[in-house]
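note to self — DONT lose this again. spent like an hour looking for the file last time. sequence + predicted structure for the chain T wanted, 185 res
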Amino acid sequence: MNMQSLRFPDHHFDAAVCGFGIFFVEDMKNQLQHIANKVKPGGKVAISCFYDTAFLPLSDLFFRHLAEFGIEKPPVGWKKISTEEKSISLFTSANLSDIRVECKNMGYYLRDANDWWDVIWFAGFRGLVNQLTPDNLEKFKQIHLQEIQNLATQEGIWLDVEVLFTVGKVSTANLLSGQHSSPPL
């Protein structure tokens, strides 16, 4: 179901979770309000998002090499809520209360640079490398993976994946103010 037009009755659920998704919507405040509208008063709404420094330094190297091939770094939607302060601001603007934010590092060691290529290929970076011609894709891959491999230690290559978990409560005031009555545009 499209999260921008959830077809559930209002105040139907005890809780709602949006894992790594809300930042794909331009108007995150309106989207969060729409989700919260489906939750009963006193219920919880939770989202997860990458922290501001997630994927560094690997992603910086990735974007630097892409720029050398003429591919510009696009705006990164999750950066709009990638700190505790930004997440709290989003939840506050959506009239959620009792907001808690916790940052956890879910990072792990990659065995080698090829594991990083799997992250690129099977995650959000794939659309960027698909803009390269086949010849440039091979050149980019070779240059980039060699630089990534140079970061290896005995344990492997650290992939930093810091994640923010933000939880807020739907209050009765939300119902009275009509904040959640219409779906986002």
